[in-house]
């Protein structure tokens, strides 16, 4: 399926499992966090990445190339030439999951860097998707001549079976279902969840509510995210908005395991509003 323009977070949410302009989608998430952010220079940089990748590959199209050749070209373009690499020193810095900051700093989390590799690979005519791999985000790259897996956190290097075993969380078996392609929307949700986890760890309820608000736009069918949003808003002393989110969550998923908690909190918030 050809990629759809990510004109808004709502458009990405509506795309479901379909491909979208994933890098632009990640920039829209950055802008949602910083509304004053102009995306123009970042969109130009994405175009420059595509041009550099094409020059490095030196082929009219990557579609019929050896996928390892394409992976090598991507690593040279993004890693060696542009300096993109994983942030090992300040891994938990929230900027590592904000694509605009990642472009500014040339450092990021695996999933943020992976989005740039997916963008570059698709611009060459190859297929590329995030994989359903736990812990460490990796990218599946495909052409008419086969498929391979690359590690965006480490210069786009090729990943073999031994590497996957090493990268997987302890006690997790690397099975075929771990190498199934994830939707672009799923990758963007994973990007946001990286931020959300860190905000929860810091006890930042307001920041968590902001991220959860974007997640409800990416996954409008999810009652769970609306429930979490309601909880975060209640902790941020926004009872009216919190109750609204909780009632929406219950309407979307009336049989959820968190139903009783949501009903109790919504009732408590209703009393506080009277």
- Main sheet strand line-up: 3-4-5-6
Given as residue ranges, the uncertain stretches (5+ residues, pLDDT < 50) are none
Q: Using DSSP, what is the number of strands? A: 6
Number of helices: 12
Binned, the helix content reads 55-70%
Q: What class, by secondary structure content?
A: alpha+beta
| Ends apart, CA distance between termini | 51 Å
Question: How many structurally independent domains?
Answer: 2
What name does the CATH topology of the largest domain carry?
C8orf32 fold
- Biggest beta sheet attributes: 4 strands, antiparallel
Quaternary state of this entry equals single chain
What's the CATH architecture of the largest domain? Roll
Percent of residues in β-strands = 5-15%
Q: Give the ordered list of helices and strands.
A: HHHHEHEHEEEEHHHHHH
